[in-house]
Amino acid sequence: MTASPIARYGFAAVAAVSLSACGINSVPTAQENAKAKWADVQAAFQERANLVPNLAAVAKGAADQEKGILTGVVEARAKATSIQLNANDLTDPAKMAQFQAAQNQLSSSLAGFGRLLANVEAYPELKSITNYQMLQSQLEGQENRIRVAIRDYNGAVQDYNTRVRTFPEMIGAKIRGAEVMVPYQAATPGAEVAPSLEGKL
């Protein structure tokens, strides 16, 4: 005896719900969302890196002791922009750690430059440069955008990793060969805090 059309539709509906519940569709959807959030993180870091040449141009007339710190900022920027992660690397803790370390070094260098300029009375040539004030504001805003992008990425990774590791969605994750992703973490104490470039101008 053949099944009635209603029974066939009912079976198809149950099968569809079962597949959805086991993560066949929800796991890759969460994975793609996390990858998109990572693209936002990379864009935010690149925008910060793009501001560094402007920093160098504004401070090019600085005293010799400033030039050493400025050189460190430029070198840290070069290293940070040379290390890239693609979406397939987001499950590799070693590659993520390498990327984080390079970005944290640039954050540290920018913070060092900001601390040096905190006593602007010693550097009157910078105090009068309106471009410096504008750049300072841009860098502070960019650090905030980086922090938001990282928070959003980590939230997406948490959602994806939870699906990959919990029943019943872990079934679909295993079928698809999905691996857990690495959240973005500070590689050094305090590196998650945006560097202050406050010059008290």
Question: How would you briefly describe this protein structure?
Answer:
This protein is mainly α and 201 residues long. The protein is 71% helix and 0% strand.
Describe this entry's structure for a reader.
It is a single chain. This protein is mostly helical. The chain has 7 helices and no strands. Helix 2 (26-58) packs antiparallel against helix 6 and helix 3 (64-82) packs antiparallel against helix 4 (93-117).
Which term fits the overall shape? elongated
Q: Whole-Å distance between the termini?
A: 87 Å
How would you sum up the major sheet?
A: none
Strand percentage, roughly?
Answer: under 5%
Summed over residues and divided by their number, the pLDDT gives a mean of: 79
Uncertain regions spanning at least 5 consecutive residues: 13-19
What's the helical proportion of residues?
Answer: over 70%
* SSE pattern, N- to C-terminal: HHHHHHH
Which class do the helix and strand fractions yield?
mainly alpha
Number of strands: 0
Mind telling me the C-alpha Rg?
24 Å
What is the count of helical runs?
7
Key features of this structure:
mainly alpha, 71% helix, 201 residues
Secondary structure layout plus pairing:
Layout: H1 5-21, H2 26-58, H3 64-82, H4 93-117, H5 124-127, H6 130-165, H7 169-176
Helix pairs in contact: 2-3, 2-6, 3-4
